[in-house]
Amino acid sequence: MLAHSPPLPLAIDYPGRSDGFTTEDEEGITLALRHRGRVRRIRLELRFSYLQRLILTIDGEFPMLDYHDFAPRANSHRHNLIFPETFRAPHLRHLITRGIDLSRRSSLLMTYVDLVTFSLRAFHAYFSPNDLPNWLSHMPQLETLRASLPFDFPSRDIERKLLLTPITTYAMLPNLRWFEFEGVSTYLEALLPRITVPLLETFRILFVDEHTFSTQNLSQFMGTIEGFRCSSAGFGFDYNFVVAWVHTLKEANKLTFIMNFCSPLDQQVAQIAQIFRAFGTVSSAVEHLSLDHGKASPLKASYKVDPARWYKLLLGSFSSVKSLYLNDDPVEDISRSLQSDDGGFHTELLPELKELSYFAGVRRNDPGEALTAFIDARQNAGRPVTLLRV
User: Fold this and answer.
1) Which pTM does this prediction carry?
2) Which residues of 13-22 are buried (b: 16+ CB within 10 A; e: fewer)?
3) How far from 348 is each of 9, 104, 275, 338, 381, CA to CA, in Å?
4) What does the pLDDT look like over 353-382, one tens digit per residue?
């Protein structure tokens, strides 16, 4: 039937039904891939063994191919897919690679000058911090970059490799708007001095299995983004996962910065304090701050946060905050962090604070009552704050 159809563009799309993948399915996809001059889109999410056979059929040139995504459903295998030596796609604009060994075909990436989307997920390969900028330097139209590098060896091994890797390549990405990174902070610290992204609008980081972070180059990198000035920040704490974000409210400054990492709740607050203290002027410009434990947080004493850690977060990072919003559990935790050892209150915290609002859900006792004494102390110190329950 396909052989006798009109020469219209073909889209080959098989998203994730490996359990039902049949011989007929494989034969149909193989037949479609043979019509190289008509294939515009390929998206296959299958078991590695199936993809390993199918990727061998994309040899030759695909002159109309615009979108390419080969995605193994599971990363339990110990090998990467490899592009055939003869594969060419001169007009490719969207390349999503998951479990594909690009180091074996790095010269191929340098031909994708029209790419606007590049997503790299490496399962079992190490890329030098010079490799990625070298590839990116040949992609001047790039608008979206996702680099997921959860290396399956310890970060100390990465650190040793990075110390021996001098900076030899740079990439200017004048059109990049979206940048996501997943991996270890030491690798990101090595990568950031090698790329320039003046018009970035969304920057998202997921740090994997780390308790301490390197942030010097990250702080400098954010300072190079044109016109960026952070005006609001928020932290969503779960019992083993935290999401942090900062963004601007003015239309002229659009950057949204998002950071995710996994750790116990008490450590999350300490880690956030460490990172945002290092951000310096980025953090000190924040005027609106929100703290949220989230609905999934278990209400157990073992998940409570040491008040001293909340104190360090608020004191060391956010000196310009004018409005603070607390959701659920942080209300009680923050109220304890405001109290000093002598029974008084830390009125020096958040010196610019004008409004403190909170949401406590449906509770028998209003935890906001614990904040009233702090509000009174601020009033007596000549720094009045309005308390609101929302």
Assistant:
1) 0.82
2) ebeeebeebe
3) 66, 58, 22, 10, 9
4) 999 988 866 655 666 677 888 888 888 888
